[in-house]
């Protein structure tokens, strides 16, 4: 599940960048709102028809509101703004630093112990990410874009700390569906107020629609479902380590569409990242992944 979520999030950077390059009138708020609308239009009817739409308990409503405020609202705003200003590959590399901070957030919030294999895996994976960055072609960015992406990393840590409050009480599909629906409610008035006049200027071409559908269904829905399952089974810190592999799949997607080329440094980085992910999954005897 975590590998699939990582693949979807990896290709999302390249698809988002492609939308900005091919649709001059699309904006950050329009893109995110359309992604969330597609995700909600798919998942809400499915859950209602199958009877799997769980009711949120009154005491958990605040956690769902905060969860959606972090992701998709603030996180997607920061991440998409960053992707608009820097290359998709560079954006994915920065997002891959999230696992470096989550274990410390879990320690501060829940006093979860930080085990040596986890630290080794994080460091090793980050070394692989750095090698991929060194081996990149034209990975440049500006300070504003890097600031947006750094904000996304911080919010992702907060999101994970909130997620553990409810992940054992609701199924992953329910959590993801409410996230997207609440996020859409947050975004819709903002988009209409700031960029509503641009909607009529969009081309609505088959390419644009295909990219939006993939982002909405695979990256905004299935990826979160799979990630939430991973958090429940392995624990937040261990599951988040898989984010280090996001640049691997971003690079593969970029190569497949001709945006970048492989180099020996990039290949070495991929091997090291995957090795770090594997090592980080080892837990000393008698420990549990959940806080």
Termini gap: 20 Å
Dominant shape: globular
Total E-strand runs:
0
So what's the oligomer here?
single chain
Which bin fits the share of residues in helices?
Answer: over 70%
Low-confidence sequence ranges:
none
Order of SSEs, N→C?
HHHHHHHHHHHH
Q: What would you call the structural class?
A: mainly alpha
As a whole number of angstroms, the C-alpha radius of gyration is: 18 Å
Q: If helices are DSSP runs of H or I spanning 4 or more residues, what is the number of helices?
A: 12
Structure notes:
This protein has 291 residues and is mainly alpha-helical. It has helices at 2-22, 28-50, 61-85, 88-95, 98-110, 116-134, 143-166, 172-195, 206-234, 236-240, 246-256, 264-280. α1 (2-22) runs antiparallel to α4, α2 (28-50) crosses α9 and α4 (88-95) runs antiparallel to α11 (246-256). The mean pLDDT is 84.
Record keyword descriptors for this entry.
single chain, 291 residues, mainly alpha, 12 helices, 75% helix, globular
């Amino acid at each position: 599940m975590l590998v699939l979520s990582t693949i979807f999030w990896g290709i999302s950077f390249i698809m988002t960048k492609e939308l900005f390059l091919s649709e001059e009138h699309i904006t950050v708020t329009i893109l995110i709102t359309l992604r969330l609308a597609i995700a909600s239009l798919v998942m809400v009817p499915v859950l209602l028809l199958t009877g799997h739409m769980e009711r949120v308990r009154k005491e958990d409503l605040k956690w769902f509101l905060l969860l959606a405020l972090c992701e998709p609202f603030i996180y997607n705003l920061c991440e998409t703004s960053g992707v608009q200003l820097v290359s998709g590959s560079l954006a994915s590399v920065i997002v891959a630093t999230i696992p470096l901070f989550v274990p410390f957030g879990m320690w501060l919030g829940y006093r979860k112990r930080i085990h040596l294999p986890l630290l080794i895996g994080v460091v090793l994976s980050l070394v692989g990410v750095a090698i991929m960055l060194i081996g990149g072609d034209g990975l440049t960015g500006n300070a504003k874009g890097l600031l947006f992406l750094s904000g996304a990393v911080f919010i992702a840590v907060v999101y994970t700390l909130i997620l553990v409050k409810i992940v054992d009480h609701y199924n992953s599909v329910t959590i993801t569906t409410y996230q997207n629906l609440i996020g859409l409610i947050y975004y819709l008035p903002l988009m209409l107020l700031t960029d509503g006049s641009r909607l009529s200027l969009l081309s609505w071409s088959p390419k644009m629609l295909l990219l939006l559908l993939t982002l909405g269904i695979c990256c905004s829905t299935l990826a979160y479902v799979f990630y939430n399952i991973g958090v429940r089974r392995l624990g937040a810190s261990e599951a988040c380590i898989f984010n280090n592999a996001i640049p691997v799949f971003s690079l593969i997607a970029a190569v497949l569409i001709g945006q970048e080329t492989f180099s020996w440094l990039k290949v070495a980085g991929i091997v090291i990242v995957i090795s770090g992910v594997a090592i980080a999954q080892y837990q000393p005897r008698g420990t549990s992944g959940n806080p």
